[in-house]
């Protein structure tokens, strides 16, 4: 993700020094910086949550505001320094983490004009995704990429599945509206669609549930259908995950076998030693 | 699906012209037509939903009725033209999309006699399944067929599973009727079966839940059973999906066998060494 | 299942004749008998359900009682004939379906002494499992056996999983009792265990739900754990099902390859023609 | 688990005798001891549960207290004997079961000072995990290890998944707080996060559910997302389980590699042709 702008800038010494601290974690100072960063992200998230609790906000309002100011200023300075010390500035600014770093600041300054936007600061939590890089947890990062890649590869199938599911829910909801029509929770078609989604995903709040025997019979059929349908996304992702796990780019030169496990040293088809 | 009647009719020029616009999307006009069609489907669905909301219906009743008339007339003309310009008329009329196109019209005309049928217009949403063909999203179509095929191939196992599940729910419901008998939600056996299905599918509305300690004990056992049973449909579809996934690109040159595993070196149908 | 006693008895003609009608469905009369049987099972189940609805029972009480008598007498005669015409009587009586046929009768006669046992008649539904044999649905029967076998083979793992789950629920329930202790729904440890099971299986009736912030925090952790745990039974059954699907006893004589698909005619490892 | 200290001590006869009874179950006395132990664990768990029910506690308080004393003393003596007769005392004390045996005693003695800790005695249930060893259920033990191993191997991926899920829930909860803000159940951000977790895990108590149309629309999107996300942990564990399942009986004679796929003909570690 940060490969492109990972190059050590050759220009000035202070830039190189800061670069190492901010972008790397192979020095004592760099690690300290990362840990402070993580703590501030967590603290910031915690404060936003607590501010929303009237009882706590009344008591600690000033503390919360002051801490928010300090953290936001720290993040602002950090963001500017990140841009300053990196060589390929554009690459950083438009990278995944670059955008998140920016979004983590905007709500603070916006909240002077639109107070409600303050709560968008919660997006700061996304910065935590850096956690694996920070602690050099390479295995965790690899596994994380694996999951993301499996999801990406099956995303097309999942979109199709969701389209089916939405059409299905709209139709079922409308039918139920005709069956239970007017009864509490089924007053309108959108309401009934809401019920259909709550049911088919097996969430089942119970704020809306069928009342007439006919409606209950109908709901039973929907539930049994939903119970069978739930297998589809699981099947998609499982097949993809299993697939990704085995053949990460490896191939036997002698027989072309592509089914090579991560820890294999010899091809299990022809016995050829693997490179 | 529309292969059979896909042939360009050789008769008249205007027929050929309209055919291209309506059935294909390889011309500017054809694409425009498709986009207008999709928008009208969405608009129609939206209007039906909004009509069911008393507050909105009161305010915009006339607008809704007029729009519905316009869209339905457009769909009627389109349906007749689809029949007119296609060669093999029977094939279109009884094809999957031909039937849906017809069903999307019927409720409108029926609603003059039986007003309640108006809401069946929601089935128009099914026309949206054409969306992938319209935007030439071949990959999406292939993935869609894959899902449908996997479901079709495992449908027999899923029917058996559902039969088991229904028998199971009926028996459990009856037992629970004896345990909780008469208490709210368990007044009759059908009611108790409704509860059993709600529980075993893990929907759990909570409109009916066990009250006596004995009933709760019984429910706990049912839930644990349901939790284990949920694995069955998933297992079925996953195994099928994994199976279908593998052998999509490979094919045997000698006998045309398409069912070739990733690690196969010889065709299992004719024994030919695979490339 | 009924293999052992499937042999045509050589003794008397009427026995042989009845045997064919009752146990087989390769004659017109045999098929008629089977269809009548199925209809009576369905009718019987339906009557028991309807009898539990006070409104219907009041109106049709006599009809229900008479029909129940007729059906039960028919089943009794049928059961005695099944024993009479079969050669290996013991084998039938203690076979899976023999026991079910017997259990389908007992509650009727017991209900003269203990009226409540009447509802156990619902177990008659289990006789419906014969449906696949009756209609000669061989593919369905095979798929059914496959599912049953996959469940049997993974039953040991599922028992272990359930033991884990029960211990887990008991401990979580007890901890929650200490956290929420005394609040409605958490008055006793068994009550709290009931809540834990409802939560971890994702049923979530909502008749009991955490009230204090501490309890909610605790519940969130439990739900996230349950969400991860749900993968285990699915994984077990899926692995088993996938396994069962491919290698049903087949093996290549030349290379010993056991991974042979149902439709393979040549070994995909060495190209040897399969027997 | 108890391999290290499994060695028969050579010192004194009474030690060797007791060792066989306590640690092994290959003698009549040893089996009797194990069954008594299991019964007392179950009885103890049962008593703790029943004590929490005010009605039962009032009636049987003395019985419960006396039984608890007897069982706890028995467990104390047993724990001390376990240490006395084993050779490598440290190994036992810090082994998995050694720690559990200790934890099963502590709450009893602590409860003299802090009565509430009494309920921690429920942890005694964990001692039941010994059940498979006791009855020499080797197959069960192997399957148990298999599940534990599959979970351990996929634990890293599951942690990552949980981190994603937590960040996701916090963000969704905060957004919902802005949408439904102030309405019952969404008074604060932590409350809204609680709702988000209840929804995304498909538990759906219904103690909190969206009220405004906007909130319901938002909830529908979250549910559909959750329905797709649920596939991820299942996919992870299934892939891992399938993997572990295959290579259990096979082993390479040359290098002892145990990770051998069903269709492998050569060891992938040393290239040796497999038998």
TrEMBL record, chains A, B, C, D:
<protein>
    <submittedName>
        <fullName>Ion transport protein</fullName>
    </submittedName>
</protein>
<feature type="domain" description="Ion transport">
    <location>
        <begin position="31"/>
        <end position="246"/>
    </location>
</feature>
<feature type="transmembrane region" description="Helical">
    <location>
        <begin position="60"/>
        <end position="80"/>
    </location>
</feature>
<dbReference type="GO" id="GO:0008076">
    <property type="term" value="C:voltage-gated potassium channel complex"/>
</dbReference>
<keyword id="KW-0407">Ion channel</keyword>
<feature type="transmembrane region" description="Helical">
    <location>
        <begin position="92"/>
        <end position="113"/>
    </location>
</feature>
<keyword id="KW-0812">Transmembrane</keyword>
<dbReference type="InterPro" id="IPR028325">
    <property type="entry name" value="VG_K_chnl"/>
</dbReference>
<keyword id="KW-0631">Potassium channel</keyword>
<feature type="transmembrane region" description="Helical">
    <location>
        <begin position="29"/>
        <end position="48"/>
    </location>
</feature>
<dbReference type="GO" id="GO:0001508">
    <property type="term" value="P:action potential"/>
</dbReference>
<dbReference type="GO" id="GO:0005249">
    <property type="term" value="F:voltage-gated potassium channel activity"/>
</dbReference>
<feature type="transmembrane region" description="Helical">
    <location>
        <begin position="158"/>
        <end position="179"/>
    </location>
</feature>
<feature type="transmembrane region" description="Helical">
    <location>
        <begin position="217"/>
        <end position="239"/>
    </location>
</feature>
<keyword id="KW-0406">Ion transport</keyword>
<dbReference type="InterPro" id="IPR027359">
    <property type="entry name" value="Volt_channel_dom_sf"/>
</dbReference>
<keyword id="KW-1133">Transmembrane helix</keyword>
<keyword id="KW-0813">Transport</keyword>
<keyword id="KW-0633">Potassium transport</keyword>
<keyword id="KW-0851">Voltage-gated channel</keyword>
<dbReference type="InterPro" id="IPR005821">
    <property type="entry name" value="Ion_trans_dom"/>
</dbReference>
<dbReference type="Pfam" id="PF00520">
    <property type="entry name" value="Ion_trans"/>
</dbReference>
<keyword id="KW-0472">Membrane</keyword>
<keyword id="KW-0630">Potassium</keyword>
